[in-house]
User: Fold this.
Amino acid sequence: MSEIDQKLIEHLASLIRIDLNSEESELFAGQLNGLVEEFKNLQLVDTDGVEPTGHIGDLVTIMRTDESSASLDQEEVLMNAPDRNGMFIKVKRVIE
Amino acid sequence: MADLWKLNISDAFDGLHKKDFTSAELTESCLDRVNSTEMKIQSFITITENVARDSAKEADLKIQQGSTEYLTGIPMQLKDLLCTKGIETTCGSQMLKGFIPAYNATVVEKLNSVNAVTIGKGNMDEFAMGSSCENSAFHPTFNPWDLTRVPGGSSGGAAASVAAGQVLFSIGSDTGGSIRQPAALCGVVGLKPTYGLVSRYGLIAFASSLDQIGPITKTVKDNAIVLDSIMGHDSHDATSLTGFTNKLAPQITGNVKGLKIGIPKEYFVDGIDLAVKTAVLEAVKVLESLGAEIIEISLPHTEYALSCYYIIAPSECSSNLARYDGVKYGHSFLDTDDMWEAMRLSRAQGFGTEVKRRMMIGTYALSSGYYDAYYLKAQKVRTIIKQEFEDTFKLIDAIVCPTTPSVAFGVGEKMLDPMAMYMNDVCTIPANMAGLPGLSVPCGMSDGLPIGMQIVGPRLSEKTLYDIGYAFEQHTEWHRQRPGL
Assistant:
């Protein structure tokens, strides 16, 4: 029984906001099932009472002094925007 | 002046400062070498000849004025996921084709400040996802030792360019082995530093809890020289460590007498080629003859690290790559009025197959109903792997094992089987899971292809790793082998 079917593939694709073509959908369904099968070996590890590690190191909240400093050049930053109107980035209509 | 491109950093530094030659001459020699080899290996995405020539002139002026910085005037390649102000930075992806950063990565800023010479931007697997450099959206890179084989990845361009003598060093990044694996397959020296030792500011993110920038060089000492120039705290990176400013290169002694070196049996099992095992165990004998104490050890959870990594890294990537929406920068599908369609098609067209596959895996592992079984479980196993290393390093100073399960494999050989490709990282992934430093040094050859020995130590043990690597290098000739390109 494959765990990951076409319906789930479509759902995942919608979550990552990518239109997959039918070839990709089929390919990924097969490959993801194979990979998930490999990953199941993790269930053999006893993790009772083990805390998860999201990050290595001893992170602390870093505060900086409230001082202004130079910003990036506006034109240089906006230069990479695919669609512009002067100093604004143009976006598609969000509210109908 | 002939063949200056053959020099390593230490020798080039001596030559530059004795006025035997100029950085302009050294740079021209490297550019000539690029011209004569690039058609064959394709290690660059962008070649920046003009930037290089200008920078070399400035470097020569600095040297005249008495600069004593090791890297002043030394030609280098930067992996194309390091933001370079005014120079296209693609991350090996159509998504970022044409992207011109408005700022430099901290590492680039540091290298520019001493006038290291940027010859160009290195080819890589798209968004650093891959182990063969075949996932670049632009072209593959080929192994300088055998053009029918891959150079490894994802920093394949970085390793191939150093091995081929196009540059004296390169900067790569390593999330699950992307510096060490290509360094091993190309016969050069690669270090993944301790997580946090080098600032990630301006590194295009893949999996933020694992990514680390590091040097690829021809020798161990050169590697320390480059690390000295790029490490250090950076207020732009909240995960960057504070308080480590002592330069390592002058401290390397190559003395391994009394060092306790562990040989983990899990890295010498079936699936690791006999030639690789044999070469690494021969190398261990050299270290033993130099006074190191060799101890057989066991890291029983090693076998789970691969699954753990291929859940955690894709999960982090699926989140990191959400930023590519086709609005602010990057590839954009403009021919619609619907914002969601624009986003879906921008991303469908901009990303390649491997990147999509990893986002799908990551999103699956993070989605409700599967989160506990995959992502959370993997994070808990990560804790156990980390703990196992910490316990081990209470008893020994470092671990020595293979960097890769095999020598360089054939172009196209593993592209249709993701799991076979992912297996290439089986020896390198554990260090990333625990944030540990790992050094790969050339330690043998099989069928004319290089083999790498990996040295892993506790956090911030880079000096010990360099001492072991340097000791080995001083008593063997493997690091002098160069491909006959």
